[in-house]
C-alpha cells in the first residue's frame, strides 16, 4: 500500500474531517480506495464495475460539491440506485446491457453530500436471495472467511465495507438485505422505516413498500449522518416520513432514556438457532440491562404459517412487473431464458395467481404487521438474533441433488398446480433461513443489525434491534451506547490484519476518530 496508508482506520466521518482540515486531499482518498479495491477485490468479488476515471476526475478537478462527506469514496449497489450513464445490471443477464438514463433521487442526494462514487457492488439477481451468488457476476465472498458467503442481497456492499475498500456503501433491504450481510460481515446495518428514504427512479413503490434503501457502514455515526442526507419526503410517494427537527447525527450525543427492551432468541417462524448466536443475544440483553434499560425475555405469539406464502406471492408479482418495466425501458421484451432458474419460476408463478390471491396476500401480511405492532404497545425495542446462525459456505443455499432437475422440469412445464405448492415450499425454506428479518419489512418498522460479538471460529455475530416506525433516532442512540460499551470497529478480517496501518498520531486524526 502506497497511498494514504491510514485510510483503513478511518470511518467516512473521519475521512471527511481530514479533507476539511486539508490533512489529506480527495485525490489521495480516491487513490487509496482504488488501490484497496484492486488489491482486495479479486479475493472476494464485491466490486463488479468501476468508475475510477470519473472519480479521479471529480477529485482532481475539484468538482465535488461541498457537503458533509466531500471527497469520501463511496460505492453503489447494482440495484435501484440509478447513476446516470453507468451500468445497472441488477445482477441479471437479462439487463446486463442496461445503462441508467438519469440519477435516482437517492443518488442525487448521495452526490450532493460530496461523496465520490467509485463503482458498483454485486447483488443476487434482482436482489431475490439472502446470498450474493449471481450467475452473471459469480459469488461474493466473506472477508472474514472467503469460503463463506457475504450474505445478500447487499452482499457486495457489505463485503467491500468489511474489507475496508470504502468506509460505507449503498444498500437496500426488502427482507433483510441490509441486515443479513451486515451481520455476517461484521458491519453496522440499519433498515430504515417505510417512507424514510427515497427508492428507485423507475419504480416508486417496490414490493408493496417493503423495500427501503440506506447504507451499510462500519460505525453508527456514519449511518446517522447518511440518514440526515438521504431522508426527506419523496415526491409522489404517499407514505413519506418528514425529517425530525433534530438531526440523527446530533442525536447521538444524547443517550436514550431507559428503554423497555424485550428480547428473544425464539424465531417467529420455524428455524433452528445456533447456540452461539442464541448466547450472543442473551449477552446483548444483559449489556442493555447494564446500561440502565428495563430488559425482559418476551416472545410475540407465533405468526401464521401462511405469512411466508403471502410474502412470496407479493414478491413474485412485484418482481415480474419490475422485470417487465426494466426490459421495456431497454426496448425489448422479457426472455425467460435470460433469467436464473429460481427467478424464472418466481416470475412465471405470477401468471398463476389471481388478483384475489394478491389481495389475500396483502391482507395476510397486514394482519402480521398488526400483530407485530401490537407486541410493541408495551415495548420500545425488540432484541433478537439477526440470523439463526453463521454465514454458510458458498453454494450452500443453491439447489442440490434432485432439486436441480426438478426445478428445470418445472421451468419447462410451469403448470399452476405444480408452481403453487413450489412457491409455498420456497417461502417456508426462505423464512427458515432468515426467520428474524422479514417481519420488519412487512410492518415497515426500523431495525438494525449491530456487530457486537464474534463466534469461536472468528466469524461475526449480528444482533438485531427493532423499534416503532419512525424511531430510527432512538435506535441509533442505542446503537451508539452499545458501540461505546462494546467497540467493534477495531476488529479486522484475517485477510487485512497484516495490511492495516495504525492511525496517525496527530491531533487531526485523533479528532477525526
Please give a structural write-up.
The chain has 513 residues and is α+β, with helices and mostly antiparallel strands. Helices cover 39% and strands 14% of the residues. It contains 17 helices and 15 strands. The chain has an eight-stranded mixed sheet with strand order 8-10-9-14-15-13-11-12, sandwiched between helices. A three-stranded mixed sheet has the order 1-3-2. A hairpin with a 2-residue loop joins strand 6 and strand 7. Helix 5 runs parallel beside helix 6, helix 7 packs antiparallel against helix 16 (472-485) and helix 10 (307-329) crosses helix 11 (341-349). The longest helix has 23 residues, at 307-329.
List the helices and strands and how they pair.
Elements: H1 12-20, H2 26-44, E1 47-50, H3 52-60, E2 73-77, H4 105-112, E3 116-121, E4 133-134, E5 138-139, E6 141-142, E7 145-149, H5 155-162, E8 168-173, H6 179-185, E9 188-191, E10 212-217, H7 220-230, H8 248-251, E11 260-263, H9 275-290, E12 294-297, H10 307-329, H11 341-349, H12 355-375, E13 381-385, H13 403-412, H14 416-433, H15 438-443, E14 447-454, E15 460-467, H16 472-485, H17 507-512
Amino acid at each position: 500500500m502506497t497511498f494514504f496508508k491510514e485510510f483503513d482506520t478511518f470511518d467516512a466521518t473521519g475521512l471527511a474531517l481530514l479533507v476539511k482540515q486539508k490533512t489529506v486531499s480527495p485525490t489521495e482518498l480516491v487513490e487509496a480506495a482504488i488501490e484497496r479495491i484492486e488489491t482486495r477485490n479479486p479475493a472476494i468479488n464485491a466490486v463488479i464495475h468501476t468508475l475510477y476515471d470519473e472519480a479521479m476526475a471529480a477529485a482532481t478537478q475539484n468538482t465535488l460539491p461541498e457537503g458533509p462527506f466531500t471527497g469520501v469514496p463511496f460505492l453503489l449497489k447494482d440495484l435501484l440506485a440509478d447513476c446516470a450513464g453507468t451500468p445497472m445490471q441488477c445482477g441479471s443477464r437479462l439487463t446486463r446491457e442496461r445503462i441508467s438514463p438519469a440519477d435516482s433521487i437517492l443518488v442525487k442526494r448521495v452526490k450532493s453530500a460530496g461523496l465520490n462514487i467509485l463503482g458498483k457492488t454485486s447483488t443476487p439477481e434482482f436482489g431475490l436471495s439472502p446470498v450474493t451468488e449471481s450467475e452473471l457476476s459469480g459469488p461474493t465472498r466473506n472477508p472474514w472467511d472467503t469460503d463463506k458467503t457475504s450474505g445478500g442481497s447487499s452482499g457486495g456492499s457489505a463485503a467491500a465495507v468489511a474489507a475496508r475498500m470504502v468506509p460505507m456503501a449503498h444498500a437496500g433491504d426488502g427482507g433483510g438485505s441490509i441486515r443479513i450481510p451486515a451481520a455476517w460481515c461484521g458491519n453496522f446495518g440499519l433498515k430504515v422505516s417505510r417512507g424514510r428514504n427515497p427508492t428507485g427512479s423507475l419504480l416508486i413503490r417496490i414490493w408493496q413498500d417493503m423495500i427501503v434503501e440506506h447504507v451499510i457502514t462500519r460505525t453508527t455515526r456514519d449511518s446517522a449522518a447518511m440518514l440526515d442526507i438521504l431522508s426527506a419526503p419523496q415526491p409522489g410517494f404517499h407514505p413519506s416520513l418528514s425529517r425530525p427537527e433534530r438531526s440523527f447525527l446530533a442525536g447521538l450525543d444524547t443517550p436514550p432514556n431507559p428503554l423497555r427492551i424485550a428480547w428473544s432468541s425464539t424465531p417467529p417462524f420455524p428455524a433452528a438457532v445456533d447456540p452461539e448466536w442464541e448466547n450472543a443475544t442473551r449477552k446483548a440483553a444483559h449489556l442493555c440491562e447494564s446500561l440502565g434499560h428495563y430488559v425482559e425475555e418476551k416472545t410475540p405469539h407465533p405468526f401464521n404459517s401462511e405469512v411466508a406464502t403471502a410474502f412470496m406471492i407479493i414478491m413474485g408479482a412485484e418482481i415480474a412487473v419490475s422485470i417487465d418495466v426494466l426490459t421495456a425501458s431497454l426496448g425489448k421484451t422479457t426472455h425467460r431464458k435470460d433469467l436464473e432458474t429460481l427467478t424464472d419460476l418466481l416470475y412465471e408463478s405470477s401468471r398463476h395467481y389471481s388478483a384475489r390471491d394478491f389481495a389475500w396476500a396483502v391482507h395476510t401480511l397486514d394482519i402480521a404487521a398488526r400483530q407485530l405492532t401490537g407486541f410493541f404497545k408495551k415495548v420500545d425495542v425488540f432484541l433478537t438474533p439477526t440470523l439463526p446462525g453463521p454465514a454458510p459456505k458458498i453454494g450452500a443455499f443453491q439447489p442440490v441433488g434432485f432439486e436441480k432437475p426438478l426445478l428445470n422440469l418445472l421451468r419447462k412445464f410451469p403448470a399452476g398446480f405444480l408452481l403453487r405448492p413450489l412457491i409455498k415450499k420456497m417461502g417456508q425454506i426462505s423464512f427458515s433461513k432468515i426467520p428474524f428479518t422479514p417481519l420488519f419489512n412487512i410492518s415497515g418498522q426500523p431495525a438494525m443489525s449491530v456487530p457486537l460479538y464474534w463466534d469461536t471460529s472468528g466469524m461475526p455475530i449480528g444482533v438485531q434491534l427493532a423499534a416503532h416506525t419512525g424511531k430510527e433516532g432512538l435506535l441509533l442512540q442505542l446503537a451508539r451506547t452499545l458501540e461505546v460499551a462494546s467497540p467493534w470497529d477495531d476488529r479486522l478480517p484475517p485477510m487485512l490484519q497484516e495490511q492495516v496501518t495504525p492511525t496517525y498520531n496527530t491531533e487531526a486524526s485523533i479528532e477525526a476518530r
